Structure formats: C-alpha cells, structure tokens
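Re-run with default settings, no changes from the original entry. Doing this only to confirm the output is reproducible before filing.
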Amino acid sequence: MDNKRLLFNRLGHDFISRGRFSPDTLKRIAGKEKLPVAMRFWFRLTGFSNAYWDMLLKKNHAYDTRFARPYSVE
C-alpha cells in the first residue's frame, strides 16, 4: 500500500513539474496488461469474453451494427 502511494505521489510530482506523466512510473503503477495464458484460453473456449460486451451493445441498441466500420477508407 505504501509503495502505491509513493508511486502516485511521484506521478503527481512529475505531472506538476513537467506537465506530463512519467512513462516509467505509469508502467510501475499499471501492472500486468495481459491475462495469464490459461485464463485467455478459458475465455476464448467459453465465449465469456464477448458476453459482457454483447450485453452492453444490446443494452445500447448497437448490437446489429457491431461490425460497422464508420471510419474505414474503403
């Protein structure tokens, strides 16, 4: 807990003094960006990874246009 607090303090100090966040401090705060291989396999196998996203699309009436490419150059 103390380590996170120090990192956030350092992040705020960097932002105040330089006007931007320090990339090194951001990396240390962020932690892992990928799920473990076993979890990724399980999500892919069960289709669970799309369930939440599909629910949000249906809730916002956007499920029918989920493959639309509005900014495509083609």
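The chain is about 65% helix and 0% strand. The two ends are 50 Å apart (CA to CA).
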